[in-house]
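Two proteins follow. First one:
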Amino acid sequence: MNKTTAYFPAMIACAVFLTGCFFRPSPPTSEEQAEKVGQFIAEGGYSPAHSYAIYSIRETWRHAGQAVEISMLAPTAPGVYPLIVYLPGLGEHADGGRLWRETWAKAGYAVFSVQPLEIGEALKELGPMQGMGDDAGLPGPPEDEQGPPGDNKSMPSKALRNSELHYLGHEHFSQESLNKRINHLLWAHAQLKLRSTSGKGLFAAADLSRLIIAGYDLGAQTAAAMIGEKSGADLSQAQDFKPLAAILFSPSVDMALGQVATRYKNISIPLLVVTGSEDDDPYGISSPYVRTAIWEYAPLGNKYLLLLNKGNHQLLAGSNLEHRQEPGSPQESSGKIGPGDAMPRFGGSFQGGPSGGPPPGGMMGRPPHGGRQDSEQDFKHIAAVFSVSGAFLDSIGKSDGLAQSWISGKANQWLKKSSNLKMK
C-alpha cells in the first residue's frame, strides 16, 4: 500500500472521530422525556386515581426585617386538600423542586413552599469559573483540558470555587442559621393558617390538619429538625406545627456532630428518605454513605428509604433543569395549570388514568454542580420519585389502601435495578 492509499483511511477515521466530538446527539425534548417517564410508570409504577388542574401563586412576605418567598400550588377544583410544606435547598428560590411539587399538586395536594430570600440568593455572588463561560456553579475542567493561557484568569479556579462552596455551606448549615430558618418557617405557617381559616384565595385549599413536611438539601435539614432530630434547634414555638409524615430529599448528616445512633430516635412519624449512590453535595458536609443514617437509626414503623442507583445530588432537587426559570416566570406565577401542563399525568399504571402532556422545558439539563448525566437512568429515577412519593403521600394524607399495598409490596418489583426501596 503506497502512502497515498494509506492517507485516505486515516483521513476518514479522523473525520469520524471529529464528527463524534462535535456533532453529538441532541438532548431529548421535553415531550420525549415525559414519554419515557410515563412509559416506565406504566410498566407497574404508582399513579394517583385523579389528576387535577392546578393554580399557582408566588408572593414575598416580610418577617423580622427579612424577605420570605412563598409559593402555593393547589387544585382549582373547590375543596380542601392535604397540605405539603416544602422547603427548597441552598441557593434555590421558593419555586425550587418544581417537578416534585407540581406532581403532588396535580395528585390532589396543596403545596406551600417557603424560602427566605437570603437563602435563595446565597450562591448568587459566585461567578463563573475559568474555562466555563456563563455556567455559574459548574466545576472547572481538569488541568489538561483547561483553555490556553489567554483565558480569563480573573475567574475563580475549581479549588477556589470549592473552598467558597464549603464556606457558604457550613455557614448556612450551622445551628444559628437553622434556628433562623425554623423561625421563618413557623411564622409563615402561622400566616398560612390565618389566610386559610379566613378563606383567603388559594390558601383556603390547605387542610392544615393533614400536614406533611418535605425538604431538599438545606430544606431537608430544617425538616428533620422539625420532626424530631436532636439538633439543638429551638422548637418552643412549634406547638401548632405537627406533621403527620415527612419526605427528606438528600438529608444532611454531619458526622462531626456525633451521636448518630441516638440523634434520630425521636422521629416517630412515617418517613420517606430519598437519596442516591452518588449523592455528594457541593459543600463537603455529607456524603452518599452517611445520608441513610436518618433512616437506619429512626425507630421502626412506616420508615422508607428510596435509594437511586447512581442518583446524584442535583437530580434530587427536582428542578426544571434544562430551561432555568427566573422568579415570576410564566411556569409558576399567578396562573392556572391544566392537568397536561407543566408536569405529566401518567396513565396505564397501578391506578390508571388519562395521560397528560410534558413538563416545561426539560428535566435533564446540565447539573449546576456537575455529575454524571445518564438519560435512561435519570428517567427511571424521576419516575421512581413520582411513584414512591405519590404512594407514600396517598397512604398517609388520604389513607389510601391501594397506595399502601403498592408501596409495601409491589414497588421493588417495578423499580428493578434502577432503584431500591427499603422499609422497616
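Second one, unrelated to the first:
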Amino acid sequence: MSDQPTDQPSELLAARRAKLDRIREQGVDPFPHDFPGVIAIAEAQAPWATLEAGEERDDAYRIAGRLAARRGQGKMAFLDIVDRSGRMQVQARADVLGEEAMAQLVEFDLGDLVGIDGTIFSSRSGELTLRVTDFTLLAKSLRPPPDKHHGLQDVETRYRRRELDLIANEEARELFVTRAKIVSELRRSLDDDGFIEVETPVLQPLYGGALARPFITHHNTLDRDLFLRIATELYLKRCIVGGLERVYELGKDFRNEGLSTKHNPEFTMVEWYEAYADYGNAMDRVEQLVVGIAEAINYDGPIDFAAPWPRIPLAQAIKDATGIDINEATERDALVAAIGASKKVKLDVEDRAWPALVDDLLSKYVEPTITNPVFITDYPTALSPFAKAHRTQPGLVERFEAFCSGMEFANAFTELNDPDEQRRRFEDQVRLAEGGDEESQPYDEVFVQALEQGMPPTAGVGLGIDRLVMLMTGRDSIREVVLFPAMRD
C-alpha cells in the first residue's frame, strides 16, 4: 500500500464506509462521546512483568487504543492494541463475549480506535495479555493505516502528515514524548532555581533581539503592520528592569530565513535572564541544565555531555581552524586580504561586511568540526549589538555561543545595560541597514528608555529547543523533531 494517503484505493475506502453504515444499522454509535476509566497500557502491564507463562489473574483493566494487528477469527482471536505508552495483546473468545459480540469485534478494521475491558493473564508463550470481557468502538477509521510491515517510510509524507507517522512509527511517538520530557526538565530546572516564566508579545511593533529578517503581518483594527517576534530578548530585559530579576520565556520565535536541516522559520526557543550574573555564570548554568536534561532522559548516544565543556575564544577558534587572525585583520579590507591569501579558506567576500565575514569563518570552518559541547567566547562588538563590552579586551564583548555536533544551540551575553552605549549600538545597526544589511536591527527607543530606568548587571541566554532535541535524540534534521515543519508546496 502506498504511503500517500491520497493514493489509497477507492474500493478500500468504500468498504470502510460500508462497515460504518452497518455498525450504525446495528444501533452502535461509531463515535461515542467518552470512555472513562482508561489507563495506559504500560500502567496495566507494569505490575505483571514476572507473571509466569500460563498464569491467570482476576485483576481487571480498561485500556484503549488503535487496533494494530489481528490474528485468528471464529471462536478465538488475538488483537494488538497500541496507545502512546506501548502495545498490548488482547484475547477475544466467543465463549466469553458471545457469538454476536465476537463477530462484531473481529470485523473491526486495522486503525479503528477500540476500548477494551479485560482481565490479565500470561499466554503460553509468556506474553502479557488481556482476556476481553467487553469492548467499545471509540472511533471508526475510514482510511486504512500505513502498511504495517513497512511503516511510513516516505519522508515527505511523514513530515506533511505527521499523524500518519505517529500512527505507523513507534520511534516517532517516542521522539516526541522525549521532546516533552526535555521541555519539562528544562522548566523544572529553571523554576527550581528561582526563575519565573513570563509571556511577552508575539506580535511586536518593532522586532529585535537577534540579527534576522522578520515576518510582517497587518493588524486590521489598529491599521498598522506588526512583526512576528524574532526573539523575546528586549521584552524580557524590560522585565529585569522592572525588578523580576530572574525570568524566562519558552515559546515560538519566527525568522524569515531559508529552510535547512538546522533551521525552521518557526522554531521554539527558551530565553532566560538573570540579574547580578555575567556570561561566565550563564555558561555554568547552560552546562548544568544540559547535563541535567541528558541524565533525566537517560541519554546514551555518542555525544559526551559531561562537564566541564571547553571555553575557547572566537579569535583563537578561527585561527586554529583557518590560520586567520581576526584580532589583527580588524578592518574589512585586511580581512578580505587574509582570506584571499589563505590556502584553507574559500569564501565569497563580495558585498560581505567585516562582521558577516567573521561569521562565515565561524560557521563554515569552526562549527562543522565540533562534536562534543564547546563554548566559543568573546566576540567582536560588531557581531553583538546587545552584549556588554569585554572588561579586559577592547573591541570585544562578553558573549558566548554553545556548539555541539556541528551546530550552534545556545547564545548568551553579559547584557549591555548602559543606555548611552546601547543607543550608539542601535545607531550602528541603522547605518548597516542603510548600507543594505537586511539582518540589522531597527532602532528601539522604548527599549533604550527602559534601560535609562536602570537595569542591573544581567546575564541572558537563548537556547534552541529544537536543536537541543536534535542533539539529545540523535537526529540530523530539524524537521524530524518539529511535529509539523514548514514545507514547500
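SUMMARY FIELD: The chain has 16 helices and 16 strands. The radius of gyration is 29 Å.
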